[in-house]
Amino acid sequence: GEAAAAGNVRCAEVCLGALANICTHKEVVARLPDADVAALVGAALDGLGAAEGVVVLQALRLACSLMMGPAFRSCAALWDDAAVARCLYVLENSLLWEVVQRAADTLSQALVLDCSTAGDEVPRATSP
Length: 128
What we know:
It contains 6 helices and no strands. The protein has helices spanning about 1-25, 25-30, 35-50, 55-65, 80-95, 95-115.
C-alpha cells in the first residue's frame, strides 16, 4: 500500500544520496571500473525519471558528481538529448527550489561538457 510506496521512495532517495556523496570523492571514482560507472550513470538516469522530487534531487546530485569527476568521459548519457530534456522538464515544472537549483547546475555542467568535448573522441550518447 501507501506505506510500502513511501518506503520505496525513501529507500531510493537515501541510496541515490549516498551514491552522490561517494561520487564527490574524485579519488574513489577514478578507481571505479567502467561497468560500475555505467551502473551509476544508469541509477542517475533512472532517478531523473522518478515522479518524486526528493528522488529527482538525489539523482541530479549524483549526475553532477559524475559529470564533474574524473569519469566524465564515461558519462555521456547524462548529457544526451533525453537527459537534457528531462532536466529541462524538471527545471520548468518542479515546485521544489532545491531541485530547480540542482537541475540548473546539472544543465550547466552538461553544456560545459558538451562544448568542451565537441571535437573530442568522447562518445556522445544520443536518444533513439
